[in-house]
């Protein structure tokens, strides 16, 4: 009886810890369908770098491919001044499909990445919890296979970002490269 009670309490605690995470992951995630070219349509974050650089940000192209060991190689190309700059990241798969980890050697940060929802051929909503010695932050990305998305998808991105505790000032629909106007939500 005592062992059964401890088992039940242990399972309840484990469930509570999982629920504490609070960020969902795509049901029946299929990693191979996530690969290919994406455009960053939306970005939301409460980090200091985002607040400082928000006015300079534009849409970028991201290519996702699977490595030989089943992780994800993520290469983003974004405009910086008059040039394009590339950033490569290796997302390490975890035991939970659709969830990855990434350590940034440049910034000394750890990233807990969740593919929240996707239909693979139109959009993907990705949430990241970032931990550094100086604190933590949240980032939400909206990817699209094309340079435009429906108002419903943009609204879903905004709604989900708010659910993660981000304010309207921390949510940005990225302008296309070459567009001068910023569209904020």
TrEMBL record:
It holds the Pfam family Lipocalin. It comes from the Eukaryota. Residues 1-19 form the signal peptide. GO terms for molecular function: prostaglandin-D synthase activity; small molecule binding. InterPro entries: Calycin (IPR012674), Lipocalin (IPR002345), Lipocalin_CS (IPR022272), Lipocln_cytosolic_FA-bd_dom (IPR000566). Keywords: Cytoplasm, Disulfide bond, Endoplasmic reticulum, Fatty acid biosynthesis, Fatty acid metabolism, Glycoprotein, Golgi apparatus, Isomerase, Lipid biosynthesis, Lipid metabolism, Mast cell degranulation, Membrane, Nucleus, Prostaglandin biosynthesis, Prostaglandin metabolism, Secreted, Signal, Transport. Monomer. Belongs to the calycin superfamily. Lipocalin family. This is Prostaglandin-H2 D-isomerase. It comes from Grus americana (Whooping crane).
């Amino acid at each position: 009886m005592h062992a059964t009670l401890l088992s039940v309490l242990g399972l309840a605690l484990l469930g509570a810890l999982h629920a504490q995470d609070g960020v969902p992951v795509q049901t029946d995630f299929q990693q191979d369908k996530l690969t290919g070219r994406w455009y960053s349509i939306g970005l939301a974050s409460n980090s200091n770098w985002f607040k400082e650089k928000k006015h300079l940000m534009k849409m970028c192209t991201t290519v996702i491919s699977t490595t030989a060991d089943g992780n994800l190689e993520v290469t983003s190309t974004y405009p910086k001044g008059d040039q394009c700059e590339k950033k490569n990241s290796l997302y390490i798969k975890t035991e939970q499909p659709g969830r990855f980890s990434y350590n940034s050697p440049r910034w000394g940060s750890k990233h807990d990445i969740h593919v929240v929802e996707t239909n693979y051929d139109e959009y993907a909503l990705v949430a990241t919890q970032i931990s550094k010695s100086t604190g933590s932050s949240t980032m939400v990305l909206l990817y699209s296979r094309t340079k435009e998305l429906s108002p419903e998808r943009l609204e879903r991105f905004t709604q989900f970002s708010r659910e993660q505790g981000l304010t309207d000032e921390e949510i940005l629909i990225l302008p296309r490269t070459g567009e001068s106007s910023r569209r904020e939500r």
